[in-house]
Design brief:
mainly beta; globular
Amino acid sequence: MLTTTLHKANTRGFADHGWLKSYHTFSFADYFDENRVHFGALRVLNDDYVAGGMGFGQHPHRDMEIISIPLEGDLEHQDSMGNKEIIRHSDVQVMSAGTGVMHSEYNKNSDKAVKFLQIWVIPNQQGVTPRYDQITLNPADRKNTFQQIVSPNANDAGAWIHQNAWFNLADFDAGFEKKYTINQTSNGLYIFVLSGSVTVADQVLETRDGLGIENFTTLNIKALENSSFLLMEVPMLK
């Protein structure tokens, strides 16, 4: 039977460090809620605002798939693998931390903020060789459809990660609806609304609301107004 877990935007954890304002859908840093540690393999969903010229200095990660999606502005990335890149709106960055990597993320611009989603997915294998990937998307390819941005397959659309997970972005016009079909029947789906409002699984979701959905094969998603959202299909690790 279909089951859902609703996370309204105003129930998320929040950290205000001045230069950094971060909303946490799941437990992170000083925010802990035993009922909101993860949704399956989806471990972190942070909605970050970084002031001009500021950012995260060099820090380590290991055994985690890290996905960054800029929503506004530009991120400057540098890591111990030798990568130095600018991640812009319409780009998606994927980093497999594996055996360990050091990296920094800074706002490239001094005169405006950068807003981005920082997402961590628990991998299906540990100790992999660290790797970095970055792709540029065409936003027109998600107009009234699902634009795949992450999958487990290097030969498939979007970037790939070490997990049986599929991510899609979508921009729906008001009144448009479309069915989502699960890729792996044991997976769950987490929908996060970036703007607008949609109805799914008998729930109305508004901007920055999230909904975890389990035990389904197909699901109808309808936009109540012009809406953008992110779909994250992940294995339901316990």
